[in-house]
Write a structure and sequence with these properties.
Blueprint (H helix, E strand, L loop, with lengths): L1 H60 L1 H13 L5 H15 L5 H5 L7 H25 L7 H34 L9 H34 L4 H21 L4 H16 L1
Keywords: Coiled coil
InterPro entries: CHUP1/IPGA1-like (IPR040265)
């Protein structure tokens, strides 16, 4: 019994010592963690202090410029998209110098932030539409027409979604722009549709040309004419999709679709 008592006592005292040791180590670990946390917090405060100091410096150094931009944006009005793009570039050339635009401009209570947003949206939208128009205007039709039709249709599918969406929302968007004296020229949508019709017409012309050449070879060899028929049908389908997208077609496109349809029947 005595031996058992001593053994149990040693275990109890050993457990207590271990607990005390762990407790002390826990305190040391916690203390180290607190110190590290404080160091991190101080570092962050120093960093933020330098950051906000730079913002205050921007407010001071660019105050005159910002006030000039404020006046310019507030009084700006246009229906000329070239002027819109140019003015947007002028504004951005100054605002891009700021450390944190939103923080700096927030120090100027009367700054026309909402009009700045509409200015940016208008410039970005027109630049995007103008890029589409330029791409279609410079579109080159090359042989073989089968592969080229795939390329043309791929681009058409891409812009169709964007243009259709804009057609549905343009009235609402126009009101927003007008409320800030920006009369956005949505007439560029019509130009894009007309240019798309031109691309389609060029495809039909080349398709009929290649079809005639292929038919001549087929007649000489006495082979099947399915290749020519498929080519014409593919061009006609593309023309019809463009017609539906544009809401009509010009005289040239109308003439070409009739010729293509007649050519298809004759093969």
């Amino acid at each position: 019994m005595g031996n058992l008592y001593r053994l149990l006592k040693l275990q109890v005292e050993g457990s207590s010592l271990d607990s005390t040791s762990h407790h002390k180590m826990g305190k040391v670990g916690a203390s180290a963690g607190v110190k590290q946390g404080m160091a991190d917090a101080l570092a962050e405060m120093t960093k933020r202090s330098a950051y906000f100091h730079q913002i205050e410096e921007d407010v001071k150094n660019y105050a005159k410029t910002i006030k000039q931009i404020n006046t310019a944006i507030t009084s700006f009005k246009t229906s000329d998209m070239s002027e819109l793009i140019k003015f947007h570039g002028y504004v951005e050339s100054h605002l891009e110098k700021l450390t944190d635009e939103s923080q700096v401009l927030a120090r100027f209570e009367d700054f026309p932030t909402k009009k700045l947003e509409e200015l940016r949206m208008g410039a970005a939208l027109y630049s995007k539409l103008d890029t589409i128009a330029t791409t279609l205007r410079n579109w080159s039709i090359v042989s073989p027409i089968g592969e080229h039709l795939d390329k043309a249709e791929s681009y058409f599918n891409k812009i169709k979604v964007e243009i259709d969406t804009l057609e549905r929302t343009k009235d609402e968007e126009a009101k927003k722009f007008i409320s800030h004296n920006i009369h956005f020229d949505f007439g560029i949508l019509i130009s894009i549709k007309e240019l798309m019709i031109d691309v389609s017409s060029n495809c039909m012309e080349l398709a009929m040309k290649e079809s005639r050449e292929a038919q001549t070879k087929e007649n000489t060899r006495g082979g099947s004419k399915n290749g020519s028929r498929k080519l014409l049908w593919k061009a006609f389908q593309f023309a019809f999709r463009v017609y539906s997208f544009a809401g009509g077609q010009d005289d040239r496109a109308d003439k070409l679709t009739r010729e293509l349809a007649q050519k298809y029947k004759e093969i």
